[in-house]
Every structure is written in structure tokens, then in C-alpha cells.
């Protein structure tokens, strides 16, 4: 599918005004003309004083990758939900830890989206995302106490795989190459980052540039 370019609309974005006004009305719980007017006025002030940065991102929608992203995400949610429910029913005292994951994209949007998707899966909560380094810190439920290193390594691999599925679904070819992946919709898996594979991809990226 053709590449699309999205740009932020600046400090007076209509969508942002509507969203902030809606939040104001929900907080007050009063749907009146006066409250709506106050919400719009406050939204305009906030948008002017603290505008969101302009977003310039190129997307390339790959339908098969989008389908795989959604199906695999729903599968992960269902499996994790059963696992958490099992812990609750057993009244277990699970071991928890914080995992540090190095994401591969250099785009704030994909870092935020990866953190959001990770948090939506029961048992994991993103607690910090560092845009300059691409590091993501996630609280993990039920780490194997006998082998915590391997358990956290598996979790890190799952988050990186989630990011790859996201990138292959909507990222441009250049963004995929920048993240160290080949273009296309097929995911490569953890072994894709063997040193020899990385070297070969860097050579292909240099040739592409």
C-alpha cells in the first residue's frame, strides 16, 4: 500500500480541542453549555501554551503484517490473561522484576506504541520509556525464580518481537532498514540478530543508501 505522510496540525488542532474538552466534561460530570464553553476555552489555552510537537512520520501499511500484528496481540492477551488468572486462583506469590529492553526503532511514535501494546498484555507494565536511547523499562510479573536471567531474556525477546510486528505493519521501508530489519511483512524472529546476520544487513543497508 502507498506510503502516507502524517503531520501534526499545530497548537490549534481540532481533534485535540475536542479531546481535551471531552476530558474536561468527564471530569466535571456536567454536560451543560457553560461547562462545554469552559472546556473549549481551557483546551485552547492549553493547546496554545503547551502545543504538541509537530509529528512527521511516513507510514507504509502492509495488510498481511497488520493482520498478523492484531491476531498475535490478541493471542498474547488471551494467553497472559489465563496465566494471571491462574496465579490469582492459586494465590501464588510470584517473583517480579523490572526488565530493560533496547528497542530497535529510532522513532518516538513506535517506542510509545510498543510500550502501550506491552502494557495492554496482562502481567507486564511499561514504567519508563527513554526516547533518546530507545530504552524501555517494563515491570514483569511471575519471573522464574530459579532462572530469572533466562526468563527476562525471553520476555525481552517477546517485546522486541512485538516491536518488529508493529514496524512491519506500518513502518516505511527506510524505518525498517534503520531498525536493522529487511523490508517486507514477514517477521524474522530472535535469531535474526546473530552477529553475522547483522553484518549482512548493514551491508545491504549501505548498498540501499
TrEMBL record:
Pfam families per UniProt: MNHE
Annotated membrane topology: Multi-pass membrane protein
GO molecular function ontology, one term from the record: monoatomic cation transmembrane transporter activity
Location (main, coarse): membrane
Keyword 4Fe-4S: no
Alphabetized InterPro entries for the sequence: Cation_antiport_E (IPR002758)
Keyword Transmembrane helix in record: yes
Keywords tagged on the record: Cell membrane, Membrane, Transmembrane, Transmembrane helix
Subcellular location: Cell membrane
GO cellular component: plasma membrane
Ranges annotated as spanning the membrane: 12-29, 35-52, 64-85
Family affiliation: Belongs to the CPA3 antiporters (TC 2.A.63) subunit E family.
PANTHER family for this protein: NA(+)/H(+) ANTIPORTER SUBUNIT E1, NA(+)_H(+) ANTIPORTER SUBUNIT E1
Protein's name according to its UniProt entry: Multicomponent Na+:H+ antiporter subunit E
Amino acid at each position: 500500500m502507498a506510503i502516507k505522510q502524517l503531520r501534526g496540525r499545530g497548537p490549534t488542532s481540532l481533534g485535540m480541542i475536542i479531546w481535551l474538552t471531552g476530558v474536561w466534561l468527564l471530569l466535571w460530570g456536567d454536560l451543560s453549555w457553560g461547562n462545554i464553553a469552559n472546556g473549549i476555552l481551557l483546551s485552547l489555552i492549553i493547546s496554545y501554551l503547551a502545543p504538541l510537537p509537530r509529528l512527521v512520520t511516513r507510514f507504509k501499511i502492509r495488510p498481511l503484517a497488520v493482520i498478523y500484528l492484531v491476531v498475535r496481540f490478541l493471542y498474547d492477551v488471551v494467553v497472559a490473561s489465563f496465566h494471571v488468572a491462574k496465579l490469582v486462583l492459586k494465590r501464588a506469590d510470584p517473583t517480579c522484576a523490572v526488565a530493560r529492553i533496547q528497542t530497535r526503532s529510532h522513532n518516538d511514535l513506535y517506542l510509545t506504541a510498543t510500550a502501550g501494546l506491552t502494557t495492554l498484555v496482562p502481567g507486564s507494565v511499561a514504567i519508563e520509556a527513554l526516547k533518546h536511547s530507545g530504552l524501555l523499562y517494563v515491570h514483569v510479573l511471575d519471573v522464574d525464580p530459579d532462572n530469572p536471567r533466562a526468563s527476562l531474556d525471553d520476555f525481552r525477546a517477546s517485546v522486541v518481537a512485538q516491536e518488529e510486528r508493529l514496524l512491519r505493519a506500518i513502518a516505511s521501508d527506510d524505518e525498517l532498514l534503520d531498525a536493522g530489519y529487511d523490508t517486507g511483512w514477514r517477521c524474522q524472529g530472535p535469531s535474526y540478530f546473530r552477529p553475522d546476520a547483522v553484518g549482512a544487513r548493514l551491508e545491504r543497508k549501505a548498498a540501499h543508501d
